[in-house]
Write a sequence for this structure.
C-alpha cells in the first residue's frame, strides 16, 4: 500500500493543477446541487419492528386522511389571578383565538376548550389543540406567524398564553462556539508548524471536504429523507478528521524535507507512510459509522452513512489535494524545525540541548510503566463511576429550557391537568378478527382503568368500518418517568389477555410509547453493535500492526475511555455538574441513542490515534530498535502531532456545545471529553506503559496467521528498499 500511495502523492504533486481543478469542480457541483435542490421535508422517524411503529402504521391504514404525521400545537391559556377561564371576557378571548386559528389553509382541525372538556378543574387553565395537514418542518412561515399572532392577541387581552407541540419546530443552530472551535484549531496548527501557510493547508482542505459533504447531504436531503441533524453530525466529524488527517501528512512531509529530500519525493513519501495510516484510521471510523445500521433505526443509519461519506471524502482529499497544495506552496512550507519569517524564523532552529517533551515523557513511562498504568486505569475508572447511574430516554418538551414557550406550555399543562397529560398514550385496538368489536373495545377500556398510574381513559373512537378504535390514556406520572414506562408494559400485558378472550389485538403508541420502544431497541442493539464494530476493527488492526496483543490493548483502552466519557455525560447532563458552564438549563435522562452513538464514533476516532502513534513505534521496531527504544522513538516523532490533533478535534467538537439542539450539544460534549480521555490518558499514558511491560511479546503474531495476512506495508518498508536497494538493514521478524 505504501508504494501505491507514494505514487499517488508524487502524481498529485506534479499534476497539482488537474487535482485542484477536480476538487474545486466537485465542490461547485455539490454547491449547485444544494442550491437548486427542493427543501427537505420532515424527517420520518420510523422504528421498524417496534409495537409503537406497528400501531402507527395501522392508524394510517385504518384511519385514512387523518394526517397522523401532521404537526400539532397546543395553545395553553391561563387566567389572571382571581379569575377563571369560564369568565365571559376570558371565554370570548379564547373563542376569538380559536376562530383565527381555524382560518389557516394548512389547518386540519382546532378544538374548542369549552366543548372538548379542555378546562382544568379549578378553571384557571384551558387549552386548544390545533392539528395541521403537514409536518412541523413543512409548515409555511405564514402559518407559524398566524399561530403566534393569535397567541399574542390573547396575551394582549390579559391572559397568559404559551404554545407547545411541534408546530414551532426550527432548524437547530450551532452558535458562535463552532467558529471559536475552528479558530482554536487554527492557532494550534500555527504553533505546531510554525508557519501560517503550513497551518492553513489542513484548515483549507478540511473546509473543502466538509463543504462537499454537507452540500451533497443538502442536495439529497429531500430525496433521501435526511434531517438537519444529519448535516450537523457530518460537519462535526468531517471537520475534526479532515484537519487531523491533513495535519499528519503535512507533518510527515516537513519531516521528510528535514532529512534532505526533494519536495516531490517528500510529498510522495509523506503520502506513502502517513497516508497509509490515514487510510486505515479512516476505515475504522467508516466501519464504526456505517455499523450503526445494525440498530435498524433508519434515522440513525442515515446519520452514520452520511457522516461516513464525509470521512471518506476527508481521506481522499488528504491523499490527493494535500500533496497538490504542497506543490503550490513550494518553499513556503519549511522543513521541520524551521519557522516562517513572519513568526520570527528565517533560519534553522538550533537543536535542543535536551530531548523534546514527547521523548522525555516516553522515557518516564518506560521506566515506571506499572505506576503509570495503575494511575491511568484508576483515574478513568473514577470518571466512569457516574455511568453506573445512567438513565436513558428521549427528550420531550419538559427537557427544554424554561425560557422557551414550549417548556412553559408543558409546565402549565402539568399544573392544570397533571404531569401525565403531556405524554398521553394512544391505545389502538384492532378488532378486525373479533366477532364483537364493540365489546372488545369496552373490555380494553375496563382493563386499562383497573391499572395503576392511570389518571384518565377516554371512550373508544372507532373508524368508519368499526373494526378499529383508538383510546387515549393519560398517565398520572410525567412522560419520562419509570412509572409511565411500567404502565406501557402493563397495558401491553393486559392486551395479551384481551386477545385471548376476544381475538382483538391491543397496541400502544404515541410519542411516549415510541420513546420507550426506541430506548429498548437501542439497548438491545448495543452489544451486537459493539461486537461487530470492535471485531471488524480488531481484524483490521491485526493487518496494520501484524500483532494480536496491540489491537487487543487498543480495544480495551477504548472501552475505558468510552465508559469514562459516558460517566462525564451523566455527571453534566443528568446530575447537573458544571451544567451552567455547558449551557445545560435542564438536566434529565441521557438521550437513549447516546451510548451506542458514542461507542461507534469514539471507537473510530480512538483508533486514529492508535494507528498514527503506534505505526511510528512499529516502524522503528521493524527497523531494528529494541521494544522500549521503539516506544520512545514513536513518541519523539508522533507525540507533538498527536497532541495537536487531539486538541484540534476537542476544539471542533466542543464548538458544537453551543448548539440549540440538545442532541447536538450532548454529542459535542461527549465526543470532546472522550477524545481527551482517549488521546491524553489511554494513548499517551496507558499505551506506552503496556507496550513497555509486554516488550517483544507486544509484536507477537502466530506464524500461520503471519503467512495468511496480506502485507499492507504501512511502515513504508518498500519505499525504504526502493531508495536504498544495496543497503543492508537488520529486519526484525514480527
Amino acid at each position: 500500500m505504501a508504494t501505491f500511495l507514494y505514487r499517488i502523492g508524487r502524481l498529485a504533486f506534479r499534476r497539482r493543477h488537474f487535482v485542484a481543478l477536480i476538487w474545486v469542480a466537485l465542490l461547485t457541483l455539490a454547491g449547485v446541487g444544494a442550491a437548486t435542490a427542493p427543501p427537505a421535508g420532515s424527517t420520518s422517524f420510523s422504528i421498524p419492528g417496534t409495537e409503537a411503529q406497528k400501531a402507527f402504521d395501522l392508524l394510517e391504514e385504518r384511519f385514512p386522511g387523518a394526517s397522523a404525521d401532521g404537526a400539532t400545537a397546543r395553545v395553553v391559556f391561563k387566567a389572571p389571578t382571581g379569575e377563571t377561564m369560564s369568565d365571559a371576557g376570558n371565554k370570548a378571548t379564547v373563542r376569538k383565538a380559536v376562530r383565527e386559528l381555524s382560518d389557516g389553509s394548512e389547518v386540519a382541525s382546532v378544538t374548542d376548550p369549552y366543548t372538548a372538556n379542555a378546562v382544568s378543574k379549578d378553571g384557571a387553565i384551558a387549552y386548544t389543540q390545533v392539528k395541521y395537514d403537514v409536518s412541523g418542518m413543512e409548515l409555511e412561515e405564514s402559518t407559524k406567524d398566524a399561530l403566534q399572532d393569535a397567541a399574542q392577541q390573547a396575551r394582549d387581552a390579559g391572559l397568559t398564553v404559551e404554545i407547545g407541540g411541534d408546530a414551532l419546530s426550527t432548524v437547530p443552530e450551532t452558535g458562535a462556539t463552532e467558529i471559536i472551535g475552528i479558530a482554536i484549531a487554527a492557532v494550534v496548527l500555527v504553533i505546531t508548524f510554525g508557519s501560517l501557510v503550513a497551518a492553513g493547508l489542513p484548515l483549507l482542505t478540511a473546509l473543502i471536504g466538509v463543504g462537499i459533504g454537507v452540500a451533497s447531504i443538502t442536495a439529497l436531503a429531500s430525496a433521501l429523507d435526511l434531517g438537519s441533524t444529519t448535516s450537523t453530525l457530518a460537519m462535526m466529524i468531517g471537520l475534526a478528521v479532515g484537519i487531523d488527517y491533513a495535519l499528519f501528512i503535512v507533518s510527515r512531509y516537513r519531516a521528510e524535507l528535514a532529512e534532505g529530500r526533494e519536495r516531490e519525493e517528500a510529498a510522495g513519501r509523506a503520502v506513502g507512510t502517513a497516508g497509509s495510516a490515514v487510510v486505515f484510521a479512516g476505515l475504522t471510523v467508516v466501519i464504526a459509522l456505517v455499523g450503526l445500521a445494525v440498530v435498524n433505526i433508519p434515522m440513525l443509519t442515515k446519520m452514520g452513512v452520511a457522516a461516513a461519506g464525509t470521512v471518506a471524502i476527508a481521506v481522499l482529499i488528504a491523499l490527493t489535494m494535500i500533496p497538490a497544495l504542497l506543490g503550490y506552496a513550494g518553499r513556503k512550507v519549511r522543513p521541520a524545525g524551521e519557522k516562517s519569517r513572519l513568526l520570527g524564523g528565517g533560519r534553522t532552529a538550533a537543536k535542543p540541548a535536551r530531548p523534546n517533551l514527547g521523548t522525555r515523557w516516553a522515557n518516564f513511562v518506560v521506566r515506571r510503566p506499572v505506576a503509570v498504568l495503575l494511575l491511568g486505569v484508576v483515574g478513568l475508572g473514577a470518571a466512569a463511576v457516574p455511568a453506573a447511574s445512567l438513565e436513558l430516554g428521549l427528550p420531550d418538551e419538559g427537557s427544554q429550557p424554561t425560557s422557551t414557550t414550549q417548556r412553559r406550555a408543558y409546565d402549565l399543562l402539568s399544573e392544570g391537568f397533571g404531569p401525565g397529560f403531556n405524554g398521553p398514550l394512544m391505545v389502538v385496538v384492532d378488532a378486525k378478527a373479533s366477532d364483537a368489536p364493540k365489546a372488545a373495545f369496552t373490555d380494553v377500556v375496563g382493563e386499562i382503568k383497573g391499572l395503576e398510574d392511570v389518571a384518565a381513559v377516554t371512550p373508544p373512537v372507532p373508524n368508519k368500518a368499526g373494526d378499529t378504535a383508538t383510546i387515549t390514556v393519560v398517565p398520572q406520572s410525567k412522560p419520562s418517568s419509570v412509572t409511565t414506562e411500567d404502565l406501557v408494559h402493563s397495558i401491553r400485558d393486559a392486551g395479551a389477555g384481551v386477545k385471548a378472550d376476544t381475538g382483538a389485538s391491543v397496541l400502544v403508541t404515541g410519542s411516549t410509547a415510541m420513546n420507550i420502544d426506541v430506548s429498548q431497541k437501542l439497548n438491545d442493539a448495543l452489544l451486537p453493535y459493539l461486537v461487530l464494530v470492535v471485531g471488524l476493527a480488531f481484524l483490521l488492526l491485526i493487518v496494520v500492526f501484524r500483532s494480536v496483543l496491540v489491537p487487543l490493548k487498543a480495544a480495551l483502552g477504548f472501552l475505558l475511555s468510552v465508559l469514562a466519557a459516558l460517566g462525564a455525560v451523566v455527571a453534566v447532563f443528568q446530575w447537573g455538574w458544571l451544567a451552567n458552564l455547558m449551557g445545560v438549563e435542564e438536566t434529565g435522562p441521557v438521550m437513549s441513542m447516546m451510548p451506542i452513538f458514542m461507542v461507534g464514533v469514539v471507537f473510530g476516532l480512538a483508533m486514529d490515534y492508535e494507528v498514527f502513534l503506534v505505526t511510528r513505534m512499529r516502524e522503528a521496531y521493524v527497523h531494528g530498535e529494541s521494544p522500549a527504544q521503539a516506544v520512545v522513538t514513536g513518541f519523539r516523532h508522533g507525540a507533538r502531532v498527536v497532541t495537536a490533533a487531539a486538541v484540534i478535534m476537542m476544539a471542533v467538537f466542543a464548538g458544537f456545545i453551543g448548539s440549540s439542539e440538545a442532541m447536538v450539544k450532548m454529542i459535542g460534549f461527549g465526543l470532546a471529553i472522550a477524545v481527551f480521555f482517549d488521546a491524553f490518558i489511554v494513548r499517551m499514558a496507558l499505551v506506552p506503559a503496556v507496550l513497555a511491560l509486554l516488550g517483544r511479546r507486544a509484536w507477537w503474531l502466530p506464524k500461520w496467521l503471519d503467512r495468511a495476512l496480506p502485507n499492507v506495508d504501512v511502515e513504508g518498508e518498500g519505499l525504504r528498499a526502493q531508495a536504498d536497494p544495496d543497503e543492508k538493514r537488520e529486519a526484525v521478524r514480527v
